[in-house]
Write a structure and sequence with these properties.
Dna Ligase, domain 1; Glucose Oxidase, domain 1; eight-stranded mixed sheet; about 20% strand; eight-stranded parallel barrel; 30 strands; 26 helices; D-amino Acid Aminotransferase, Chain A, domain 1; 4 domains; alpha/beta; globular
């Protein structure tokens, strides 16, 4: 599918996302509404990964359609919220049915339909899959919306009808209750739809990388059986460090789905797998090797990722190919906040697969076959063979969930994770082993269930919550702990964590959403004013969320943007400003405007400075914006290029107030390697003596010059000896990823305590 260039139409505006990707926007050029799901796939396409083409019907269409129906007025939603308060599920279901029918029976404007079909025809496929992209503005990362609205498959002619079906799901009883329970207002809801071709698949599945371990889940045919929790997939685990397959487990696969060619709708058809297929892995060794290679390539770009894939043989292909259909960089891991007490008996009464973390004790509420729940008693743990979609509203009343047949990504389990309810799946014979009303202990971390009568003490409920990051080590530390943060999606939640500020905003990562709409060159050449407004708005969000805590904005640093060789050098950092300062000047204007509004906690870090000439050029532009004349403004440098080890005093004399050690670039330049190349990956380590000595020297030199020194780390838990060393060297600020805050503060607290005890001991 070719690029769609911008069209001059009173109906729609659209711009290219990337190769094979387009965004179908609403009327205004200034409305940049897009989807993280589509953005992530666009990112993959831009970086050479196989993705199917597609286009995005953005959330503004849904809002405008509801406006036509008189359903989007704020006062109407306030009245609805008041009306359905409480636990009257019958009333809630009646209202939901009425709202959904109103949407499904309405007519989509003809010019919308014509426009959508134009895009659909360009996909060159009779059958389409519509993937909902539901986002809650300001909360997407913490409140993952996956699974709340199901995808639809249809022929091109039925596109508009299926779009309405997806829109109507916003008003299912479970979704209304979900938003109400989590206090999500209507203005936060944005529902876009990603439209792609769908083909019969040989196999489909999911993969995730965490701590250098790749886990692949796979099943036969389309992915519906896996998403619906109807099969237990084949599971392969691969160690990326040693490049070996650690384990492979044959799943329980009795059924699969394919496109029904005989059906006029070409919809997915369920079929029973033969005994041969049931007892055979859905990926052979060659296919598994190919898939592993894809994720090995992805691994250096993100330490923790998850993705969905499909293995398809298109008519024009000699061999099947893997296509990535979803991709997500995970932010916060949902681990329990503490271990179970040792008083738990050795033998569980039931074992399943961990699906949602936490431990909880309560009475079992068993839903046997043919039983329909009406009201779940308080403090109950819900147990069922499988979880029907219309039961989802009851999850908000449950303390835990045990399911016999669901998979870890089935709708109910996903919702359980969002509600922080411990859950396990694949718990065979659960409804027979556990009697209704039995007092049980559910361990969602280990996938085990215990008879609470055998416990020597009562176990209090332990569920993961992002807020748990705030309660540990809440006494002041001498070393400040900040976060590296470049996305606004979970800003409000992370700002509430126990952190001293933002130690690093990477400008180019912050701008990724804007660049998904159109290239930077187009923004700067044709829409500079709009770009400046968006830039100011983005930076303002960070400054306001963390005020009065400091926020350090590192200006743009494009690493060879037009190159494919991953060269860590090139025309980057402040040197690029000397070639073309347009973007940097827009950044400075935005910073000046944000500070003028009163957010004087915003500071600036210059990236990849090679020598004083580059610094002085940038400093002159900063001065022109009146920033250096402000007493509260601080100009810092990234300590990445090793030359700063020998020029720090000159930089201080020129006016810098601090340095931020960027270990990624500093390490590879000190060791003469490219961390993006797999051949050198084993040599890239912060434990290298040259690296630790350089960090120590920079910290000591900063103290001598009486300026501040920070260090930016991605995953300090991989280097357990480093944090105590940083404390001993007197590092002022340690900035880490949000999910590393808790462990980092604990490690720093221990290190500072040891330092104090050592000092006391030496004085005696």
């Amino acid at each position: 599918m070719s690029h769609y260039s911008e069209i001059n139409s009173h109906n729609n505006h659209h711009g290219a996302l990337s190769r094979g990707w387009s965004m179908l926007d609403w009327q205004s050029k200034n409305k940049l509404i897009y989807s993280t799901k589509a953005e992530n796939l666009s990112y993959l396409a831009q970086n050479g990964y196989q993705t199917l083409p597609g286009f995005l019907i953005n959330g503004e269409f849904c809002r405008q359609f509801l406006l036509l129906l008189g359903m989007s007025k704020t006062n109407a939603w306030q009245e609805l919220s008041e009306k359905i308060k409480g636990t009257d599920y019958q009333l809630l279901q009646a209202i939901a049915n009425e709202l959904q029918a109103k949407i499904v029976n309405a007519v989509v404007p003809s010019h919308w339909q014509e426009n959508w079909l134009t895009y659909a025809e360009a996909l060159n496929c009779a059958t389409l899959i519509l993937r909902p992209c539901l986002a809650f503005v300001g909360q997407e990362e913490i409140l993952n919306s996956q699974g709340l609205i199901s995808s639809q498959i249809c022929l091109q002619a039925n596109l508009a009808e299926q779009v309405k079906q997806i829109w109507s799901q916003l008003f299912s009883a479970s979704n209304i209750l979900y938003r109400q329970q989590l206090d999500i207002n209507w203005q936060q809801v944005d529902l876009a739809i990603l439209v792609q071709p769908i083909h019969n698949a040989i196999a489909s599945g999911e993969a995730r990388i965490e701590d250098d371990i790749l886990t692949v889940e796979s099943t036969w045919g389309l992915g519906h059986s896996l998403v619906r929790g109807e099969v237990l997939p084949d599971i392969f685990t691969f160690d990326l460090a040693s490049q070996t397959i650690n384990k492979q487990t044959l799943g329980i696969k009795t059924k699969a789905y394919c496109l029904d060619k005989k059906n006029h709708g070409n919809l997915p058809k369920e079929y029973v797998l033969s005994l041969v297929q049931q007892n055979k892995y859905s990926l052979n060794i060659e296919q598994l090797t190919d898939l592993i290679q894809i994720f090995r390539k992805l691994a250096p770009k993100s330490a923790k990722i998850s993705a969905e894939w499909t293995l398809v043989k298109l008519p024009n292909q000699a061999q099947p190919q893997f296509y990535l259909t979803q991709y997500q960089k995970q932010l916060l891991s949902h681990h329990s906040i503490m271990d179970l007490t040792p008083s738990i008996p050795a033998q569980p009464i039931l074992t399943g697969y961990p699906a949602s973390s936490g431990q909880v004790q309560g009475k079992a509420y068993v839903i046997t076959e043919g039983k329909q729940p009406e009201q779940i008693p308080a403090e109950s743990i819900l147990i069922a063979q499988q979880l029907e979609l219309n039961w989802l509203p009851f999850l908000s009343q449950a303390r835990g969930l045990i399911v016999e047949q669901a998979a870890v990504n089935s709708h109910g389990v996903i919702l359980a994770r969002e509600l922080a309810i411990p859950a396990i799946v694949a718990a065979q014979q659960a409804t027979k082993i556990i009697q209704d009303g039995t007092n049980i202990l559910l361990d969602g971390d280990r996938g085990k269930v215990y008879d609470a009568a055998e416990l020597s003490v009562t176990i209090s409920e332990q569920k993961y919550s992002p807020s748990s990051e705030r309660v540990i080590c809440d006494y002041p530390l001498a070393t400040k702990v900040m976060v590296n943060l470049s996305q606004t999606k979970s800003l409000a939640q992370i700002a509430q964590l126990n952190t001293d500020g933002i130690g690093l905003i990477r400008a180019e990562l912050m701008l990724m959403d804007l660049l998904a709409v159109q290239p930077l060159s187009v923004w700067l050449k044709e829409y500079a004013a709009e770009f400046s407004q968006h830039l100011q708005a983005l930076i303002t969000q960070f400054a306001t969320a963390f005020y009065p805590r400091p926020v350090f904005y590192r200006s743009s640093d494009w690493v060879s943007p037009n190159s494919t060789d991953n060269n860590p050098l090139g025309k980057r950092g402040t040197y690029s400003y000397t070639l073309d300062s347009t973007l940097f000047e827009l950044e400075l204007q935005a910073i000046a405007q944000v500070r003028k509004l009163g957010w004087n906690n915003l500071q600036l870090i210059l990236p990849f400075v090679r020598h004083l000439g580059e610094f002085n050029f940038a400093k002159e532009l900063i001065q022109q914006q009146g920033l250096l004349q402000q007493d509260s403004f601080e100009l810092w440098l990234m300590a990445e290029v090793p030359s700063i080890l020998f020029l720090l005093s000159e930089y201080v004399a020129a006016g810098i107030k601090g340095i931020a050690i960027g270990v990624n670039d500093l390490t590879q330049l000190l060791l003469g390697i490219n961390r993006e190349e797999a051949d050198f990956a084993h040599n890239y380590s912060l434990n290298n003596l040259a690296v630790t000595r350089a960090i120590s020297q920079l910290s000591q030199a900063a103290k001598q010059e009486k300026i501040s020194c920070s260090i930016c780390l991605d995953n300090p838990s991989k280097y357990p000896n480093l944090l105590p060393q940083l404390v001993e060297w007197g590092m002022d600020i340690i900035s880490v990823e949000p999910n590393q805050l808790k462990s980092t503060r604990q490690a720093i607290a221990s290190a500072e305590k040891r330092l104090i005890l050592r000092s006391i001991s030496q004085k005696k």
